Protein 1
Amino acid sequence: MKRTDKPCECCGRMMKNVWSRTKYCPTCAKEKEREWKRRRNEKRKARAHALPVVQSASKADAELRRIVRLADLAGRSYGYQVAAMEGRL
Ligand SMILES: [Zn+2]
């Protein structure tokens, strides 16, 4: 590893005497880190949002099974049961 002068890959500003594998000037490095953290946060938020959807999906599933059971008890088809419950009959 050696020190070298090279331009920042982000803003193109010349960086003096930096490690040859350094990609960004300190300003851009900070910016990149902030962006990375923000993205990670968004992913976490998206996951938190996904949870209620899963819950309501399983709630809808439970509702469906309840209707199927009611329909079964009444000797009706599922479609007939739903129609009856919604007052379409
Ligand atoms: Zn830069």
Note: The mean pLDDT is 90.
Protein 2
Amino acid sequence: MGTPRGLRNAGSSSSACRFLAAFAVLLTLPTLTAGLTRHYTFNVQMTNVTRLCVTKSIPTVNGQFPGPKLVVREGDRLVVKVHNHMNYNVSFHWHGILQLRNGWADGPSYITQCPIQGGGSYVYDFTVTGQRGTLWWHAHFSWLRVHLYGPLVILPKRGEGFPFPRPYKELPPIMFGVWLMHCHFDVHLSWGLSMAWLVNDGPLPSQKMLPPPSDLPKC
Ligand SMILES: *[C@@H]1O[C@H](CO)[C@@H](O)[C@H](O)[C@H]1NC(C)=O
Ligand SMILES: *[C@@H]1O[C@H](CO)[C@@H](O)[C@H](O)[C@H]1NC(C)=O
């Protein structure tokens, strides 16, 4: 695929500082309506995480599980710099975001991009247009999506509202996920893509899922 487009954007400035700077601009110019550029950095790394009394080494973004919350306003440009520090390939999908003429940021491995290989980086760069509400992002390479996901909040433009009455109370996003109690996710990776068909199991014999492969590792 050649050099990923985003690599040319790589800079050394702290994204946190840039985000704070963007926030400061918002505070001092409350009537500003033009879209801002929101910068985030994803360091994808193995992290020991404990849930339900079980500690496992799983892929995380910046050591967080679920991953960090991204916040933009409608019309903003979102720039997410991904560094893959794992030995696994990965890519990221911004679920529900309309990638208008911007398919390179959509994220499905081997559909719109080759995956980011271990040690590699890629910058997802897109503008959120005509959408507001809470969506989510997730990894789009085989089973990695089980661990790598987080909320993506799109606020309305300043001075505009959501297309529903103001709620009585606002809660932070609640992420639901699965926590695999058995095995390690990496043993699934070799047959992860075929596992994806399990969700299509149907009532007819011709729609039933195939039995597990004979080389399915024992737990
Ligand atoms: C996770 O914990 C194990 C066992 O304590 C340790 O060997 C390993 O280095 C830890 N991994 C990380 C990424 O911290
Ligand atoms: C990782 O990506 C590279 C490039 O697409 C591919 O050659 C390799 O087979 C991938 N590795 C896995 C485990 O899928």
Note: Strands lie at 37-51, 54-61, 70-73, 77-84, 92-95, 121-127, 133-139, 149-155.
Protein 3
Amino acid sequence: MLIYCFFLFTTFPSGLLGGTKRGFKDYTEYEPGNMSLIITAPHGGELTPSKQENGDPWPDRTAGCLGSSGCIWKHSCGEVDAEKCPAITESDLFTATVARDMADGIKTITGLRPHVVYCRLSRSKLDANRAMGPAALSVPDAVTAYRNYTTFIAKAVSAIPGRGLLLDIHGHGHKLQRTELGYLIHGTELDSGGYDGNNSSIKSLSNFWCGNDNACSRKLIRGNWSLGHFMNEEGLRAVPSPQEPVPKVSKTSIFLSGGLTVMKYGSKEEGKIDAIQMELPQELRLNKTAWQDSRLKLAKAISGFFKINYLRDNRRTINL
Ligand SMILES: [Zn+2]
């Protein structure tokens, strides 16, 4: 019952700037913003069409088949291999609402609204955070929605003139009720400390402030200029952060370090747009009181992180 109460939440006054764009059959949506921040919500969709536009069936996503040169991602591929070619179909409940509330909260605080891109299809029909094959399993309408989603993100990216940030919003079902921040650094590497802080999905930011100074760049991931720090300042648990610098990965404690979106649109390989995957715990997303209490705190944390790291261009002011 708890989760259904979520729909009764009051929302921030709509900060929409107008010009909202919708993809094919409204399966995807793009709210253009006016700042160098993008919020994406690939797994918060609820639409579960059983048929495609032309009347053909639209089966739920399944695992793929293992062929001689890798996984085959088609519904008619034969015997599936759920271990080697898996498909996760559970949606990240309420993360579309979380994304919109975050954007509205940031507008309330800063006067500027992020770009927001949503996939409105359930993950059982499209996984917008995977490559095209496993994402859509060659279902034509799913392929079209996938292309719309990536085109919308590309539009948002192209609207940002210089350095910028993308936050990919998800929800995890892990026991520990903390937000997991994914920088494409594996949890075991965070635990051991054997990672290069300059080789992450915020590489552009790291280079900008720290150059090749690895100790400095690690502070952007878990120190006083990190997103985790600004969440701690608002009383929110996050890992990595100054309060919880390492996830302490074990068989019963999983840490999600980032998926396709942060890999593709973040700066690990190239470019000036950084990306962080935010995996929110159930307690924050599914509990009415907790979300009412936390949404503005989360917006404040993101605004603070963004302001200190992206709205200043003078490297000489850094004192990490
Ligand atoms: Zn997810």
Note: The longest helix spans residues 288-310.
